[in-house]
Design brief:
By secondary structure, the protein is α/β, with parallel strands linked by helices. The protein is built from twelve helices and ten strands. Strand 7 and strand 8 form a beta hairpin. The chain starts with a helix and ends in a 16-residue tail after the last helix.
Length: 348
Amino acid sequence: MNYYDKCVLELDNLRNADVVTTIAIESSCDETAVAILKNREVVVDLISSQIETHKKFGGVVPEIASRKHAEAIDNLVKAALAEAGLTFADIDIVAVTYGAGLLGALLVGVSYAKALAYALDKPLIAVDHVRGHIAANTIIHPDIAKPYVSLLCSGGHTEIVRVTEQGEETIGKTRDDAVGEAFDKVARVIGLPYPGGPEIEKAAKGIVPTIEFSRPLKDEPGYDFSYSGLKTQVINYVRNREQKGIVVDRGGVAAAFQRMAVSMLVDNTIRACVDSGISTVSAGGGVCANGYLREELAKACAARGITLYLPDKRLCTDNAAMIGARAYAMVREGASPASLALDAEPNL
Ligand code: KG4
Ligand code: ZN
């Protein structure tokens, strides 16, 4: 029997197996990550971050990211097995992020995972990175009941999805920049290092902003966002001050931007719940590591009797545990194995 047909049978058996042991690989951007899970339980979750390297350039340099992934991946897989006290023989499935992300970076993980799956004669599961972020919550809260509203906010996506028994419907999304992208760009404009999100949060801490940025799409119905609109206001404010020789108050700008960026996320999410009669929110993505967003979302949900599920901060930013959790759900739902022709899909 050929490799693919064997994997189809194997996945069929695993669908009802007591324990599925997954090795998951994530290399879509600037973190090489490997995790091992037994069902949804995370046994090890390793991340080799490239942040210090890219910091020097003020952002992710794709070519360097790919090279760093290639350097790190094999050692990280071996370290994960060692830490878990397992060998390759214990692995049931190989899961990998195949998109969205940087093409060269994704290719490192995809090529490695294909070779590993084939060498082990085990099924390969191709995971959509964004779906991984959504699955992060299921690691700690496996039984989030439908219907719920899912808020996804990362460096590449800003979306509100209504999840019901009938399926998933994107009811709001950014029309231009993702919220994380806006955090990163605003940080750059006020002279803060990459990655900008955590730096803005730090700079804004304890400051009550006096600058008022206006809300993009304020009078429009629906749940869309425009973060480019907000970013442009910040840039204009900063440039205007600089031209007049006025010192820019970094903390004040960071706090005012953060307040509006977060208020847009929180308000649209709550409105989506109220309009749909839904009383559960599941949030995820790198920007959900932001303490101010976590507090504001928690307050707004509590005020309306909405139950909020938020992953730990560590599981909000890129990691392989969430990729493993998504792959596990796919196996239980009867997914097909990926073929060895699997390609990276940067714009998935
Ligand atoms: O989910 P993620 O790790 O990668 C993508 O899939 O994009 O998200 C990265 C984004 C970056 O834009 C980063 O600045 C932002 O998440 N981020 C934050 C915080 N931590 C990470 N934004 C605001 N506050 C934070 N604490
Ligand atoms: Zn991500």
